[in-house]
């Protein structure tokens, strides 16, 4: 389910309905998120140079650590009770 | 299910409720559940001619195939997310057969349990903040009405052109600074409702809509299911407080962005979860 | 992704690449000019001439772009970790 300006609607999305989720959001999660497991045929996306380069062009997310422009928690953002994680920059991509 | 390979979507805890009979996944086949010692792998049979190492590699370069496969994969994960908290796998995790999948569950059991513990009862919400595209003559985010009106006429002289450029640059700088302040505050506020948060690189590239403007914030939050409504309401309350900015929310997702091992130690090779700080207070 | 090697696509891609570089230079020049304008170190006559030149240059770029059906967003290079070549906004 996709929503703008926080109006996500009541309840959670009906998963079998055709939702208009932007491709970039799906690809970003499936290519750069999710658990990486080495299996017997597993193709690790990052192992394939050409694919990795194309992915870079696609979602601009395959990056080594991009330093956060913001101070880490403790300097700003106030985190009472220690809930809410320290924000971190960039998902650790397989690209290396 | 003969010589087909096994495509694995996600791992979860038993007993996962049966999935809808009409649900199809990658390759058009309905997913199955494979249980092994306290873990369930959700799999589909897929043909080797498409999902063997070499053909798969080739397919991954085809955007249409990639998009179709990704959406089918996400469909299954989303269906799972309505009945459990699945741990989604990265795209294209394929095994030879059922015993290959079971062996994986065996080998990875501890790590998978750790991650499942962390995400249990949570969903992921994605939040993006966009600074609207500048108007054609570069007057900034368009919230300075008088500047926009003034520049609708052509510059009257060379000096006039320079003057407008200077004003436009200043307006743009100011808009960026305000956007940054807003994004930081929003991230801080939202993080308080989340067990964990991730700042992703700003979104760009050919799949980004040209008219979207500039992405200022691209983050993900691991939110307890029961707090989702408050989480979204918080975002809703920012409306009207942020001229020139647009907030986009996606979700609820399975915890794609939070699948690193909570116990990961430093690894010399850039392994998943290495060099990532421990998230501190987990619920 | 596999590039479409139609002759006119190749030409268009090359033009886009060239115009991207030209656009970068144009923006750098403009920035320099505005900085010097702001600092008051130019004479009125210089301001007028520099401004006019930049104005004409921008106009020329727009027409070239449009002739090849290129939008402003098409003139850019993604340098990966370094971000885009030209500012996005």
TrEMBL record, chain C:
<comment type="similarity">
    <text>Belongs to the gas vesicle GvpK family.</text>
</comment>
<dbReference type="Pfam" id="PF05121">
    <property type="entry name" value="GvpK"/>
</dbReference>
<dbReference type="GO" id="GO:0031412">
    <property type="term" value="P:gas vesicle organization"/>
</dbReference>
<keyword id="KW-0304">Gas vesicle</keyword>
<dbReference type="InterPro" id="IPR007805">
    <property type="entry name" value="GvpK"/>
</dbReference>
<dbReference type="GO" id="GO:0031411">
    <property type="term" value="C:gas vesicle"/>
</dbReference>
<protein>
    <submittedName>
        <fullName>Gas vesicle protein</fullName>
    </submittedName>
</protein>
């Amino acid at each position: 389910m996709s929503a703008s300006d926080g109006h996500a609607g009541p309840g959670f999305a009906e998963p079998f309905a055709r939702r208009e989720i932007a491709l970039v959001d799906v690809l970003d999660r499936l290519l750069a998120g999710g658990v990486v497991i080495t299996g017997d045929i597993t193709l690790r996306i990052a192992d394939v140079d050409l694919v990795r380069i194309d992915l870079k062009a696609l979602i601009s997310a395959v990056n080594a650590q991009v330093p956060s422009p913001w101070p880490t928690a403790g300097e700003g953002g106030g985190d009472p009770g220690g809930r809410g994680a320290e924000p971190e920059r960039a998902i650790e991509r397989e690209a290396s | 299910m003969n010589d087909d390979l096994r495509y694995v979507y996600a791992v979860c805890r038993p007993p996962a409720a049966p999935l809808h009979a009409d649900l199809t996944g990658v390759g058009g086949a309905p997913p199955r559940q494979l249980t092994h010692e306290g873990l369930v792998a959700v799999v589909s049979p897929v043909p080797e001619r498409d999902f063997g190492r070499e053909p798969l590699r080739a397919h991954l370069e085809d955007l249409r195939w990639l998009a179709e496969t990704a959406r089918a994969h996400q469909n299954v994960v989303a269906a799972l997310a309505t009945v459990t908290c699945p741990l989604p796998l990265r795209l294209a995790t394929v095994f030879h057969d059922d015993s290959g999948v079971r062996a994986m569950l065996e080998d990875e059991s501890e790590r998978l349990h750790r991650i499942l513990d962390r995400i249990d009862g949570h969903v992921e919400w994605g939040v993006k903040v966009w600074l609207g595209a500048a108007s054609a003559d570069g007057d900034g985010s368009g919230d300075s009405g008088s500047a926009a009106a003034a520049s609708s006429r052509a510059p009257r002289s060379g000096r006039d052109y320079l003057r407008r450029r200077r004003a436009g640059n200043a307006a743009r700088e100011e808009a960026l600074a305000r956007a940054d302040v807003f994004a930081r505050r929003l991230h801080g506020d939202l993080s308080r409702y989340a067990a964990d948060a991730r700042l992703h690189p700003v979104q760009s590239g050919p799949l980004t809509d040209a008219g979207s403007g500039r992405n200022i914030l691209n983050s993900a939050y691991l939110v307890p299911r029961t707090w989702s409504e408050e989480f979204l309401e918080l975002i809703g309350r920012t409306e009207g407080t942020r001229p020139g900015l647009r907030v986009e929310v996606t979700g609820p997702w399975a915890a794609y962005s939070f699948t690193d091992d909570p116990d990961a130690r430093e690894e010399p090779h850039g392994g998943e979860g290495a060099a990532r700080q421990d998230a501190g207070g987990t619920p | 992704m596999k590039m479409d090697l139609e002759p006119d696509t190749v030409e268009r891609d090359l033009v886009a690449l060239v115009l991207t570089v030209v656009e970068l230079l144009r923006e750098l020049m403009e920035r320099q000019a505005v900085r010097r304008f702001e600092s008051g170190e130019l004479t009125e006559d210089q301001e007028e001439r520099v401004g006019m030149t930049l104005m004409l240059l921008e106009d020329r770029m727009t027409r070239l772009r449009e002739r090849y059906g290129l939008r402003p967003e098409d003139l850019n290079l993604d340098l990966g970790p370094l971000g885009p070549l030209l500012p996005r906004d």
